[in-house]
Backbone:
């Protein structure tokens, strides 16, 4: 097995043969049983490393009656090792700031520090060792190769360069690939228009951002007099939010730019976050199991669900020595399969990507609804202007779903008949997708602000209704 060691050691000068479909042919195409046997051996090494260096893991595992020497199979791992949550990480960093008592390397080895924004509470600090950063770069280069990018290609990175891991991880991978990395960034006033100018000038082959930003960029580019197809993009890869595996969103981006759209990304804590990613030939997202071992589990019991069923991803690092995540619960929802992949890789696959966070789901009259499902529908509505809002409300005794959809300038100019047809089309398609009636309001172009980062489109005002009732009942 190529470069299979713990701690990981990679040849910084290695590149696959120019005509190869694979970066590591053996690791990517080996029989599943053979790979799983190697993963079991690696899990013993990873858990032993955490046992020896992390008071948090040792304390938790002793309480659960687990010891690394007990690992003989994946079933042992999944049944004996307790899951880890984001709350556990925050608690650990409260006990031992800033990196917690699960930092399994010396503090002097920390090379990169990133983290969460902390806007709703204590931020979580991510500490990545120098050797781990090299392994992350190698993993991401390997996955970018699978997406069809090659040394010498220009990769335009249009994401915020701050705490956000997506931009930095994409940059590290592009640099290791020996691509021409263009870390353009995002977020500053006027930057989107300048991105369109640079894209037209440089004509990069690869592009990275969130799906929302790519849609926003296409609007701005047209306003600036550019045709997004003229940028010459061939491979666009996305993370940060659902969308690139959602047919309506994926197809809209592909049509706007004339490019291949590839979904990737798990969690910042799990960097290399491209551990789930599609390829040039395979839609959805592959689980690159020899980088991060991923289980899809029942969100209540955290036991693995059979292929073909929905669950929440539970992740374990196989190549991290600093802050290794071992059975970290994502809180997302997905469905996994294990059939043959068009690209020839023998990994399980998430054919529809990540649906969204379980706590983003809302229930309307007994039906569970995910924002990504609404996104998929409105992006297929003729006349859709590029933004919408989902309003969950309460009128009388029933929850109501209102979807406010921007129309295009052209649809608006065609008058009330066109707007009425758009409302009816959206209502019909949403009813078919969601199994419930939604009220549709078509609003003027430019009603909703655009975002350079992750879109937030759900407004739940049922809480206002509850609070009002409570006040009236006093």
Residues:
């Amino acid at each position: 097995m190529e470069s299979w060691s713990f701690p990981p050691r990679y040849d910084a000068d290695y590149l696959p043969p120019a005509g190869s479909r694979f970066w590591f042919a053996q690791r990517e195409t080996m029989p599943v049983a053979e790979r799983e046997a190697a993963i079991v051996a690696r899990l013993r090494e990873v858990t032993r490393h955490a046992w020896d260096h992390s008071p948090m893991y040792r304390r938790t595992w002793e309480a659960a009656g687990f010891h690394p020497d007990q690992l003989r199979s994946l079933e042992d791992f999944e049944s004996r090792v307790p899951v880890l949550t984001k709350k556990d990480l925050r608690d650990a960093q409260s006990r031992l700031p800033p990196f917690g008592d699960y930092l399994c390397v010396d503090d002097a080895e920390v090379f990169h520090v990133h983290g969460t924004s902390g806007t709703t509470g204590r931020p979580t600090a991510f500490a990545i060792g120098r050797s781990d950063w090299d392994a992350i770069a190698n993993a991401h280069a390997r996955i970018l190769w699978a997406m069809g990018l090659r040394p010498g290609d220009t990769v335009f990175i249009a994401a915020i360069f701050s705490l956000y891991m997506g931009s930095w991880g994409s940059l590290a991978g592009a640099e290791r690939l020996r691509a021409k990395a263009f870390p353009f960034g995002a977020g500053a006033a006027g930057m989107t228009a300048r991105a369109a100018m640079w894209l037209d000038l440089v004509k990069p082959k690869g592009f990275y951002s969130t799906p929302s930003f790519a849609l926003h960029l296409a609007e701005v580019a047209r306003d600036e007099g550019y045709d997004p197809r003229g940028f010459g993009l061939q491979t666009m890869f996305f993370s940060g939010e659902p969308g690139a595996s959602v047919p309506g969103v994926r197809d809209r981006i592909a049509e706007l730019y004339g490019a291949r759209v590839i979904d990737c990304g798990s969690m910042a804590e799990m960097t290399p976050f491209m551990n789930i990613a599609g390829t040039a030939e395979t839609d959805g997202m592959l689980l690159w199991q020899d980088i991060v071992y991923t289980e899809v589990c029942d969100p209540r019991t955290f036991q693995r669900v059979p292929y073909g069923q929905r669950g929440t991803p539970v992740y374990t690092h196989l190549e991290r020595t600093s802050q290794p995540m071992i059975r970290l619960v994502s809180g997302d929802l997905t469905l996994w399969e294990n059939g043959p992949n068009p690209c020839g890789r023998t990994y399980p696959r998430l054919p529809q990507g990540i649906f969204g966070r379980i706590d983003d789901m809302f229930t309307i009259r007994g039906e569970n609804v995910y924002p990504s499902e609404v996104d998929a529908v409105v992006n297929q509505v003729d006349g859709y202007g590029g933004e919408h809002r989902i309003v969950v409300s309460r009128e009388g005794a029933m929850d109501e779903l209102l979807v406010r959809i921007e129309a295009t300038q052209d649809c608006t100019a065609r008058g009330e008949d066109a707007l009425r047809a758009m409302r009816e089309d959206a209502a019909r398609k949403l009813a078919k997708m969601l199994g419930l009636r939604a009220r549709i309001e078509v609003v003027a172009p430019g009603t909703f602000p655009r975002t350079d980062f992750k879109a937030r489109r759900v407004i739940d005002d049922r809480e206002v209704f509850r609070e009002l009732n409570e006040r009236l009942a006093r």
Summary: Residues 206 and 235 are 5 Å apart (CA to CA). The mean pLDDT is 92. DSSP finds 14 helices and 21 strands in the chain. The radius of gyration is 23 Å.
